[in-house]
Automatic annotation (TrEMBL):
It comes from the Bacteria. Residues 100-141 are annotated as: Disordered. The lineage of its organism: Bacteria, Pseudomonadati, Pseudomonadota, Betaproteobacteria, Burkholderiales. Residues 121-141 have a biased composition (Basic residues). This is Toxin.
Length: 141
């Protein structure tokens, strides 16, 4: 399966701290095999939370990384919202879910406009945005 991985600025900021390129490719590969693996977060419009092991810090899924993402099946896209360590954030607060849900709703509400267009606009406004070093399009080998 081919899919496009779109990193939002918040995800990109934290990805370099927690995942090197090889670990990120492994995460992408797992998500390609099971796009709906994460638990749907209530009240967000379809965002999912995925538990992922953190081998660099010797943490399993329970105390490892959390990935907040949206799988857009029609466009074959993963929209990566947040990445954090379980011990750093107790649980998603209602406020952070609401913000992510609103961001997703804005992207989905405009016909012909994907979240990728939304993130491009954010990138232009943000002077500290850096493009990812890895290829974002992946497919099965």
């Amino acid at each position: 399966m081919n899919a496009l991985f779109v990193e939002l600025p918040e995800f990109s900021r934290h990805r370099e701290k927690f995942l090197d390129d090889d670990a990120f490719r492994a995460l992408q590969g797992m998500m390609l095999k099971m796009p709906e693996a994460g638990v749907v977060l209530e009240g967000t419009g379809g965002l999912r939370k995925l538990r992922y092991a953190d081998p660099h810090r010797s943490r399993g899924k329970r105390s490892g990384l959390r990935v907040i993402y949206y799988w857009c099946d029609a466009e074959r896209q993963f929209w990566l919202f947040r990445l954090y360590v379980k011990v750093d954030v107790d649980d998603d607060t209602v406020g952070s879910r609401r913000v992510s849900g609103k961001q997703l709703a804005r992207a989905l509400a405009k016909p012909g406009r994907s979240l990728e267009a939304t993130t491009r606009q954010s990138r232009k406004r943000s002077s500290h945005y850096r493009a990812p070093k890895h290829p974002v399009k992946m497919g099965a080998s």
